[in-house]
Amino acid sequence: AQSVTQLDSQVPVFEEAPVELRCNYSSSVSVYLFWYVQYPNQGLQLLLKYLSGSTLVESINGFEAEFNKSQTSFHLRKPSVHISDTAEYFCAVILQGAQKLVFGQGTRLTINP
Amino acid sequence: NAGVTQTPKFRVLKTGQSMTLLCAQDMNHEYMYWYRQDPGMGLRLIHYSVGEGTTAKGEVPDGYNVSRLKKQNFLLGLESAAPSQTSVYFCASSPRTEYNEQFFGPGTRLTVL
Q1: Is the CB of residue B89 less than 8 Å away from at least one CB of chain A?
Q2: What three-state secondary structure class fits B96?
């Protein structure tokens, strides 16, 4: 069965510092990968996704994630964070043709001024 | 478009009481899902539906029932609430595609005393 591991439950960083949120998955077949963001007291919103093609995918607010098939990873990065990036971030994976996403346990990103 | 809406936003129940959470989507999506979110545990799938009149069990179905009588609505029922069901409940929907991108509602915060 597939699984998703987010290696850090909490990541505190200073404003304008770079950040990396780590995500590893286990699957023996092809998958699609997602990062969702949950701002305080809100539902989840799709941040970015990897379906095929270029292994580097970007969001509109400066985040990027790189699909690494050999390391089964899909780490999320941002070169300079802002206070407004404070949120919980979830990595998720789905097998091609499957009906259910599998979520990681989330990483809480806290930005300190 | 309203997207995915959930009713109610907040609810407090006493142990043994029953209630129904309503999820509605106006995107004509085939698939709908109910999750619960608890601290440190990410999102766990309760039940899901791949079409009108169909339902299936997810990861944590015990104590919950669901119905999908209309394509746009997905109901989650608690017949006899227990304190262990205190959680935030999220509904999601997705179109029937190969990669199943899910769209989430704003959540329902349920407390069982």
Answers
A1: no
A2: coil
Judged by CB atoms closer than 8 Å, whether chains meet at B99 and A104 is answered as no
B65 CA to chain A: closest CA distance, Å? 18
CA–CA separation, A5 and A22 (whole Å): 8
Contact (Cβ atoms closer than 8 angstroms) between residue B43 and residue B36: yes
* Phi then psi dihedrals of residue B83, to 5 deg: -55, -30
Residue A102's closest CA among A89, A90, A113? A90
**Which residues does residue B14 pair with via DSSP β-bridges, in sequence order?**
none
**C-alpha distance across the termini of chain A, in Å:** 41
| Candidate from A9, A34, A45 with C-beta closest to B40 | A9
Tokens, residue B21: 């959470």
For the segment B45-62, what is each residue's pLDDT rounded down to a tens digit?
999 999 999 999 999 999
Chain B: nearest CA to A45, how far in angstroms? Answer: 7
CB-closest option in B42, B43, B50 to A99? B50
HSE-up of residue B29 (Cα within 13 Å, Cβ side): 28
Across the interface, whether the CB atoms of B98 and A34 are under 8 A apart is answered no
Q: What is the pLDDT of residues A27-69, one digit of tens each?
A: 878 889 999 999 998 899 999 999 888 889 989 889 999 999 8
Distance (Å) from the C-alpha of residue B96 to the closest C-alpha of chain A? 8
